Amino acid sequence: MSDRLHLTIEGPIATITNDHPEKHNAFDDEMDAALFEILAELRARNDVRAVIWRGEGTSFSSGRDVASIGNLKVPLSHHELMRRGHRGIQQLWELDAPVIVACKGWVMGGSFQRALLCDIRVAAEGARFRLPEVTYGVIPDTGGVAVLYEMCGHGLVSDMVLTGRIVSAEEALAHGIVSRVVAPDELDATVREMAEQIATAPAVTVKMAREVIRHLALPQIRTSMTDEMIYQTFVNRSDDMAELRAARADERPPKFTGS
Predict the structure, then answer these.
(1) pTM for this prediction
(2) How buried is residue 96: exposed, middle or buried, by Cβ count under 10 Å (0-12/13-18/19+)?
(3) Which CA distances in Å does 93 have to 80, 182, 218?
(4) What was the pLDDT predicted at 80?
(5) What was the pLDDT predicted at 72?
(6) Which of 151, 188, 171, 183 lies closest to 55, judged by CA?
(7) In Å, how far from its chain's centre is CA 104?
């Protein structure tokens, strides 16, 4: 397991901590694998009643390490890597315990989308949410677009995806992306209090309430993720992606053809 991702369990509450603060907790292949191992462990435990997901340093996570976009560092095809990623993160839906995400600093890209697949998000003042994938020549591919569409509708999703605009904590609250905004020094205590409150409720009641909510949301999210896998694989092999890579190597402006 990566030393940049930790799992601690105190009584009925588990905490996942992103611990790569010098890169704003940007994820790479090793951290992805560690996250999926942690989720598999939590799936197997019936003593955990609530999960907190947080980050060390100033940010929850700035998403995927930019240097790794379009450059696989594992012995998998692009399609196989995406299948691993989808199967790994969809374990969130198989946990009995709700997952609360403590959002602070940058909450970007795939990490933002993963946070959207969790049950509850709480933001610290100053948190910034962004989907910058299109600016790097790829598309969002972790299911978060479907969740955002359910929350915010077509207009905001298109704006965030196509322009990479930044959404503040206050705007995220207004759109329902987060349920609370608190002072930065109160974030950890707030999500801990919420986790403790959930952990004291009857376990079967919590599980059944979450099943009702998931049945409303999951069919659309699963369909969206299937589309994302197909289209991201196409993008990775497209002429435009080849031109983007060549232009970066030649340090020149790219000339895109839309194919």
Answers:
(1) 0.92
(2) middle
(3) 21, 27, 9
(4) 81
(5) 54
(6) 188
(7) 13
Strand, helix or coil for residue 138: coil
Say if CB 179 and CB 120 are below 8 A apart: yes
pLDDT of residue 39: 98
What whole-number distance in Å separates Cα of residue 162 and Cα of residue 167? 13
C-alpha 27/C-alpha 24 separation (Å) is 9
**H-only helix segments in the chain:** 29-43, 78-89, 109-116, 144-152, 154-163, 169-175, 187-200, 203-236, 239-250
Angle at which helices 109-116 and 144-152 pack, to 10 degrees?
A: 60
**Tokens standing for 223?**
């369909």
Most distant CA pair in the chain, distance: 61
**Exposure of 45 by Cβ count < 10 A (0-12 exposed, 13-18 middle, 19+ buried)?**
middle
C-alpha torsion 161→165→169→170, nearest 10: -110
- Using an 8 Å Cβ cutoff, are 139 and 231 in contact? yes
The one-letter amino acid code at 204 reads: V
Query: Is residue 173 a contact partner of residue 125, using CB atoms and an 8 Å limit?
Result: no
Separation of alpha carbons 49 and 97, rounded Å: 5
Q: Are strands 167-168 and 120-124 parallel, antiparallel or unpaired?
A: unpaired
Tell me the β-bridge partners of 92.
Answer: none
Residues 6 or more apart whose CB falls under 8 angstroms from that of 189 comprise: none
The enclosing H or E element of 181 equals strand 180-182
Residues of the chain under the 50 pLDDT cut: 70
- Domains in the chain, please, with CATH? 5-203 (3.90.226.10)
What are the tens digits of pLDDT across the range 168-193?
Answer: 999 999 999 999 999 999 999 999 99
pLDDT for residue 74: 59
- Is the Cβ–Cβ distance between 20 and 59 less than 8 Å? no
